[in-house]
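Hi team,

As requested, here is the filled-out complex form for the magnesium ion run. I kept the field names the same as last time so the parser does not choke. Let me know if anything looks off before we queue the next batch.

— J.
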Amino acid sequence: MSTTTSITPLRLITLYEVSRQINSQLNLDKLLDEIMDQAIALLRAEKGLVLLREAEGGELGVKVARQMDRQNLIDAVAMSRSVIERVEKEGEPVLLQKVPDIPGEDATKSMVMFKLKSIICVPLKAKDQLIGAIYLDTTDKACFFKDADLEFLEAFANLACIAIENARSYQEIEHLNANLEQKVAQRTRELQEKNAQLTDANQKLRDTQMQLIRSEKMASLGNLAAGVAHEINNPLGSLNGNMDVFVRSFDAIRKGLESDDPEARKKAYKAALNLENLSRVSKTACERISHIVRALRNFARLDEEEFKQVDLHEGLESTLVLLENRYRDRIEIIKEYGELPQIFCQAAQINQVFMNLLLNACEAILETGKIYIRTAMSGNEINVSFRDTGVGIAPEQLAKIYDPGYTTKGVRVGVGLGLAICYKIMEEHGGRIVAESRVGEGSTFTLTLPL
Ligand SMILES: Nc1ncnc2c1ncn2[C@@H]1O[C@H](COP(=O)(O)OP(=O)(O)O)[C@@H](O)[C@H]1O
Ligand SMILES: [Mg+2]
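And here is what came back:
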C-alpha cells in the first residue's frame, strides 16, 4: 500500500457521503446490509460478502452476502476461504487480479470453480484488532480491481469499522438500558409490594391502637360510672331512709290533729319539727345528685365534639366531683387556681386528660396525702399542673410512662393507656405534657396549652 493516497477527489467526496449515511445507521444488521451494498456499488463488483468475528478470537462468519444463492454461498465461502483466511491471518488486504485456470499459489479453488477473474478482500480493523472483512469479486475480466480500488475499499472499510463499532456500542447500551429498565421495573415492583405490606401493617397497627384507645375509653367510662353510681347512691340512700321517716311523721301529725290527747298533739308537733329538718337533708341530697349529674354532663360534653372556648376551671371542678369517692377522707385537694381566660379546645378531651391525671395521682397515693392543682398563665401559654405526694416514678421509667400499654398496676382492662391518650390529646391541641418525679416524694404532671 502506498503512503500517498491515490484516491481521487471524486471518490473522497463519495466516501464522505457514504460515511455520513452509514454512520447514521445504528441497527447493526441494517448497517452491515448497507456496508455490503455500498461496497459493491463503489467498486462495481458482482458479488460480495461481509464477514464478522462472532466473539473475540472466534472465526469470521458471513453476515451479509450478495448475488450468491444458498449453495453457492456455502461453496463460495468454502472456496474463498483461502483469500479470507489470508486476510484474517495477516490482517492485510488482498487483491487477486489475474486468476489462472489451474489452481495454484495465487489462485483459489473458488476462482476456478466460479470462474472468478478478480478478487478483492480487506480487513475490518478496530483498534488494531481484526473484527471482520469485506470480500468482493467479479467474473467480468481480469485486472478488474486495481490497486487504487484496494486503497479506496480500505478507506471505506475504515469508515465502516467505525460505524460497526458505534452500532455495537449502541446495541450494548440499548441492552444495558433494557436491563436497567427491567431492573428498575423489578425493584419498583418489589418496593411497591413492600409498600403495600407496610401500609397493611400500618393499618393493622392503627386498628389495634384504636381498639386499645376504645378499651381505655370503656375502662375510664367504667371507672366513671362506678364512681358516679357510688356518689349518687349516698344521697339516694339518705332520701330513701327519709321517706320512711316522712311516712311515720305524717302519721303522727295526722293522729295529733284528729285527737284531743295532749300527748298525741305533742308527738305531732315534734314530728312536724322533724319533718322540717328532714326536708332540709333531703333537699341537700337532691342538690347533691343534681350537682353530680351536672358535673357528669359538663365533663362528658356529649353534644360537643368540636373545639370551643371553654373555662378550664369548670372542667377541673366537674372532674373532681366525679372522682370524689376516690379521694374523699383520704386525700386533701389543694387548689391554687390562677386567673385564666377561656381557652379554645375540645372540652371533653381536655377533661379526659384531667380525669386520667387525677386518677393516676389518687392511685399513686396509697394511704393519705395531698394533690395540688395549680393553674397559671405564662406568656401566651396556659399551664395546669397536678402535683401529688404519692409513690413517685423512678427516673429510668419516666421515659416509658407515655408508651401505650406501660403500667405498673397489674392486669385490668384498658391498662396503661391513660398517659398515652393524654399525650395524644395534648399533641392534637398543640400543647404538651411534662412529668417530673422523685421516688417516695411524689410526681408533678404539667400540661401546657397555647392560648
Ligand atoms: N402520678 C403518678 N405517680 C406515680 N406513677 C405514675 C403516676 N402517673 C402515672 N404513673 C405511672 O405511669 C404508668 C402509666 O400510667 P397510665 O398510662 O395512666 O396507665 P395506668 O394508670 O393504667 O397504669 C402507671 O402504671 C404508673 O406506673
Ligand atoms: Mg392511669
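Two things worth flagging: The first helix runs from residue 9 to 23. The pocket of adenosine-5'-diphosphate (ligand 1) is lined by residues 356, 360-361, 364, 388, 390-393, 401, 406-409, 415-420, 443 (CB under 6 Å).

Thanks,
J.
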